[in-house]
């Protein structure tokens, strides 16, 4: 049976925790039970509004843009969101319970140890066994089936946070930093609140004066305005290999938002298949499917040929034909070997193409009907 004092201590620490952390839901302006869609929509509209391109020279807009990005990174990731909901921002800083960074993360009491002044962890910056990993950033692009067939070189730009190279991420123009007079360098302040007569709740929160860094800067870096980070437009290119599957993911390792406080996560690009520009083909696995319409005359008499557009940039059409007298019925399927999608990773091998014939019966074309009747 734990002593009542310990229970009160734990209780108040949990309360304090939830009350004093950065409010990611508030930053995005969504309710606590917001679903993925609401979060995405809020992020899209806010990040547009505060985008540095739209607010040149506006320091507070840039800061807000960074905050919005940080909130979205957490709330859009179900695992991180669960940790945040339960343990707040501090839980995420520690890599979360069971997180991959550092040792001893699996024990939730490790968080409390850190919370109460960090037994042996030595201050908010430095002395940590390893930096936590920052969130991944996902982006997506759409290309047509023809591009999936042949492979496609893509390039794109992304506005992401970089560590300021001017001040090496310190935010200080002269490289000098002073101890914060409010928290005396600890980065955290203790607050007290009376819950009931004789029951004082004591909790820690990040210092507002120095944003939890424990340091003050006299001369802000001109480039990053003291933030140590700035939004940078980066350029990337990559190749979608021939035959790549739907929702192919290209991973740029360690290319997510960067910060002196974390090891950058990955930038991931998901390549979706657009419905436009498929030339009438659809794919299931490595096979291609297509419906081809023929007339009743062609169906019954044979003796026809036609060229249909094809996806391969070296073979842009395929010939379909039937000799005279060869009947094709409505719903017949012709399998053309080796004209499906390239196998991913083995471009010389292909799936098959399935052409399904659909016969159009003439309505009121009595001349053609009579012609066919005579022939039969
Ligand atoms: Zn700077
Ligand atoms: Zn401070």
From TrEMBL:
Superkingdom classification of source: Eukaryota
Domain J: 23-88
GO molecular function: Hsp70 protein binding; unfolded protein binding; zinc ion binding
Signal peptide from the UniProt entry: 1-20
Segments forming domain CR-type: 151-233
Keyword DNA repair in annotation: no
CDD domains named in the record: DnaJ, DnaJ_C, DnaJ_zf
InterPro entries in UniProt: DnaJ_C (IPR002939), DnaJ_domain (IPR001623), DnaJ_domain_CS (IPR018253), DNJA1/2-like (IPR044713), HSP40/DnaJ_pept-bd (IPR008971), HSP_DnaJ_Cys-rich_dom (IPR001305), HSP_DnaJ_Cys-rich_dom_sf (IPR036410), J_dom_sf (IPR036869)
UniProt xrefs under SUPFAM superfamilies: Chaperone J-domain, DnaJ/Hsp40 cysteine-rich domain, HSP40/DnaJ peptide-binding domain
Key words of the record: Chaperone, Metal-binding, Repeat, Signal, Zinc, Zinc-finger
SMART domains: DnaJ
Biological process terms in GO annotation: protein folding
Zinc finger (CR-type): 151-233
Gene3D superfamilies xref list: DnaJ domain, Heat shock protein DnaJ, cysteine-rich domain, Urease metallochaperone UreE, N-terminal domain
UniProt-recorded name of the protein: DEKNAAC103861
């Amino acid at each position: 049976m734990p002593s009542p004092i310990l229970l009160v201590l734990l209780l108040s620490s949990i309360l304090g925790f939830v009350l004093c952390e950065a409010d990611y839901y508030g930053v995005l302006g969504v309710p606590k039970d917001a679903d993925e869609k609401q979060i995405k929509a809020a992020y899209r509209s806010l990040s547009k509004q505060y985008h540095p391109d739209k607010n040149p020279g506006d320091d507070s807009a840039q800061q807000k843009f960074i905050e919005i990005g940080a909130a979205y990174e957490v709330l859009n990731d179900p695992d991180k969101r669960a940790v945040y909901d339960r343990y707040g921002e501090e839980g995420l800083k520690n890599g979360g319970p069971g997180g991959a960074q550092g040792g001893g993360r699996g024990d939730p009491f490790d968080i409390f140890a850190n919370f109460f002044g960090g037994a042996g962890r030595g201050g908010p910056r430095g002395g940590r066994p390893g930096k936590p990993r920052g969130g991944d950033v996902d982006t997506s692009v759409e290309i047509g089936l023809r591009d999936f067939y042949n492979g496609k070189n893509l390039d794109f730009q992304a506005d992401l946070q970089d560590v300021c190279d001017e001040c090496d991420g310190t935010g200080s123009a002269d490289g000098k930093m002073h101890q914060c007079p409010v928290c005396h360098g600890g980065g955290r302040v203790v607050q007290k609140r009376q819950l009931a007569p004789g029951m004082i709740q004591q909790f820690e929160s990040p210092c507002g004066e120095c944003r939890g860094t424990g340091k003050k800067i006299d001369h802000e870096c001109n480039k990053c305005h003291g933030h140590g980070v700035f939004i940078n437009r980066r350029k990337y290119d990559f190749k979608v290999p021939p035959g790549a599957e739907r929702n192919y993911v290209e991973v740029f390792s360690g290319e997510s938002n960067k910060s002196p406080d974390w090891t950058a996560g990955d930038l991931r690009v998901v390549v979706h298949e657009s419905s436009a520009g498929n030339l009438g083909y659809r794919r299931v696995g490595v096979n291609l499917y297509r419906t081809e319409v023929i007339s009743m005359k062609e169906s019954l008499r044979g003796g026809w040929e036609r060229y249909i557009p094809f996806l391969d940039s070296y073979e842009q059409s395929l010939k379909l034909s039937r000799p005279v007298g060869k009947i094709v019925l409505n719903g017949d399927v012709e399998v053309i070997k080796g004209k499906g999608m390239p196998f991913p990773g083995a471009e010389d091998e292909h799936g098959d193409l399935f052409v399904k014939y659909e016969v159009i019966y003439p309505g009121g074309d009595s001349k053609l009907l009579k012609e066919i009747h005579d022939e039969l």
